[in-house]
Amino acid sequence: MKTVEDAELCFPLLPNSSCRKTMLPSSVSLVIHLTFSSISLLTVFLNLLVIISICHFKKLHSPTNILLLSLAVSDCMVGFLILFQIVLIDGCWYLGDIICVLYVNLDYVITSVSTGTMVLISVDRYIAICYPLYYSSKVTAERAKMCVSVFWMCSILYHCVLLRDNLQHPGRYNSCSGECLVFLDYIEGVFDLLSCFIFPVTIISILYMRVFIVVVSQAQAMQSHVAAISFQDSVKVTAKKSEIKAALTLGVVLVVFLICTCPYFCITQITENAAVSTSSVTFILFYFNSTLNPLIYAIFYPWFRKAVKLILTLQILKPDSCNTIIV
């Protein structure tokens, strides 16, 4: 029969080497489990809708949507990673050292890919708004696919090198059985923070400040000349409005991203062990960002709402449904 002390251990059969559980009240533990499970399921489901929409309908194969597809893939993977966080709620890791280091490595990769995709989205909107004459010739779907593919591969390679010692010796830095811990020295940690968060966020902020200034000036110019335009000019104005709306929508995505991720990165730098409790609000907010992106698309993008309707009613199973006019 287990004693109270054994019940507090991750591995009661290894009393001398086992880590101790984080003892939470049963009600708190239940709420955290339900919250993470709900976020995980909702994140995977909503982002799968985005992935299916963009992949299936040919009319959605634009450069901007290719970037949104990359973001949706990384967000969908975040939904699966949340399942591992559910395992860690009581402070114990039961899946072994190899799975631990692979999980942490994948977490690093997905976080950097999400941030990098935000940078690519900012660049895309910057060119579309500030240099519209060059956009169609310089920014193509094929180039967007190439940029996304290269970025994913570079991110995977970079973090494999960064965590090479942990990958070569899984569990090397664990102090007890049931712990999932990877180690980065101070210089590596600072470099990773600069390259994967501070530098990208700085680029995003600068580009979107420029985009916002141009959008405001263009909106004022269109409003002042709307009464004296020809039909041909009205088509150009409509195109401009479309680009401006896309810029504002993706601006909302970027602002939400910064609101959700900045508290997490700030706290991980303040805390001594550079770790945030899985039960903390900042941690939940960090992952919840991946759930919010498809909801933003649903609010601002009519094409996404139409695509979701066709998917949920199984209309996409009909022949030639991929050529449906969505936009």
UniProtKB/TrEMBL annotation:
CC terms in the record's Gene Ontology section? plasma membrane
> Which of UniProt's keywords are assigned here?
Cell membrane, G-protein coupled receptor, Membrane, Receptor, Transducer, Transmembrane, Transmembrane helix
- PROSITE patterns the record matches: G_PROTEIN_RECEP_F1_1 (PS00237), G_PROTEIN_RECEP_F1_2 (PS50262)
Membership in a protein family: Belongs to the G-protein coupled receptor 1 family.
Lineage of origin = Eukaryota, Metazoa, Chordata, Craniata, Vertebrata
Q: List the subcellular locations.
A: Cell membrane
Q: What is this protein called?
A: Trace amine-associated receptor 13c-like
Source species of the chain: Fundulus heteroclitus
A single MF term (Gene Ontology) = trace-amine receptor activity
Name the domain of life this protein comes from.
Eukaryota
TM segment ranges: 30-54, 66-88, 108-134, 146-164, 197-216, 246-271, 283-304
Taken from the record, one Pfam family name reads 7tm_1
Q: What is the membrane topology listed in the Swiss-Prot or TrEMBL record?
A: Multi-pass membrane protein
Report domain G-protein coupled receptors family 1 profile positions: 46-297
Classification via InterPro entries: GPCR_Rhodpsn, GPCR_Rhodpsn_7TM, TAAR
